[in-house]
Amino acid sequence: MNRFIQSFLFLWLSSWSALSYSAPVVQDSLRFEVLLNSDMLRTQNIQEPLIHSFDLTARHLILLSTKQSFYLLGWGGIEPIGKEMEGEISSFTYTPDGFLMIVHNTDLCTIDSLGNLVNLLELPGQDMGITAGDSVMYLFDRSSSKSKSLLYVLAKGGKYCQLLSSPGPITAVMEKQKQLLFSTKNMLFAFNFTTKELTTLAVLEQDKTTRSIAMNPSGTIIYLSTDNAIYVLQNAQLSMISDQYGGDLRYFNNSLLVFNPEKQYLVRIIGLDASITH
Question: Domains (ranges, CATH) in the chain?
Answer without folding.
Answer: 3-11+25-277 (2.130.10.10)
